[in-house]
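Repro:
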Amino acid sequence: MNLAAVEEREFKAIALSFLFVFALMSAYYILRPIRDGMSSDWSDVELSWLWTGTMLVSFIAVSIYGWVVSRIAFRLLVPSLYGFFALSFLCFYFANYLPISSVLADKAFYIWLSVFNLFHVSVFWSFMSELFDREQAPRLFGYIAAGSSIGALVGPIIPLLFAHRLGMNNLMLLASVMLLIPIPLILALENIKSGKLGTGVLRQDISRGQTIGGSPLQGYRTFIGSRYLISIAVFIVLYTSIGSFVYFELKNLLADYDISQRLKIWAGIDLAVNALAILTAMLATSRLTVRFGLGVTLAMVPVIVSGGLFALALLPLTWIVVGLQVVRRAGNFAITRPAREVLFTAVDRESRFKAKPVIDILVYRGGDMVSGWAFTGLTHGFGLGLGPVAMIGGCIAILWAVVGLALGKVFTRDLGALESRMESSEHTGTVRFEEKRLG
């Protein structure tokens, strides 16, 4: 990893952030193969209903989170959230010893892990957008994303090697304990965020003992009122539509395997995804953003995916589906996701912690729900096979790339205007950095 772009005062914050996301992703990737292994037990229609349930639960969770953000002290917000999720998976562990339907418990776990998947990542990157400013983010987020990829590489090794020995129950217990690790790291990052790191954004930081305040529904209002945030949401919906189509195809291809075999296959895919993602994140991500700009970086993976989908339309083979899943997810982790998170350094704190979860969770799961039913309609309603569905997906991926280019252009334009205003203004004492809400 070339750390030439990292300043000495930033090393400690990067190291702690790296460990933070490493622990999060390791815990999640212990649980993910369990969830994905269950999916082949259900039909496309059943899975579409589960995704609909996930969207509804996400709406409730985001609304409750908006209420909590308005009332809990900011310094307690992030560690409390991860403590809550650790407790929730501990409850699933004990639920397996209660006299309840295993099918009901499995479906509840599938929905809840799908909600957690987006919540824990969204809040992490919100915290990172709070920690680093708009100049630092393009340079540093790629290095931090490498921690995500390494955690996602280590996590699936555990179920891959020990699934038969430990069993699903003990894997849940292990993941619950691992979700407690980020809490002391968050507290340490809070202590240095206004110290050595000392960026412009951080110097205007609200007292850690205060709440963010405002209405619990402000996140929805902010999102609806901002063309910039709506554009990010469109980018995410287009991403989810491609992911949903590929996921459904894989789920159907693995229906003939038993649950242990599926768990190992999904864990193996996760390993391949994250091995590729870590190499990309460590060697290329930051260079891509700095050299080619945010717009090109956002469009890069969609262009590659569109090519893969068109190839799949011509040669509808299983190994191409698997390869496309690996490339799509690895590219998202290493390139698209860090670049997308840079976009949120251009909004204020309330938008990061209230509107951002609406986009990352509710919009994402809404996109899953719509695309899941769309896939079911194309295959069951119109009887389309893998080739025609892949052709439709390739066209969607091209639109996804166009939206990414447009978002990068808006971000770059606004950043230049903001820097011009800052250079022309007079500053005395502590600088107060007033961020312009885009849209």
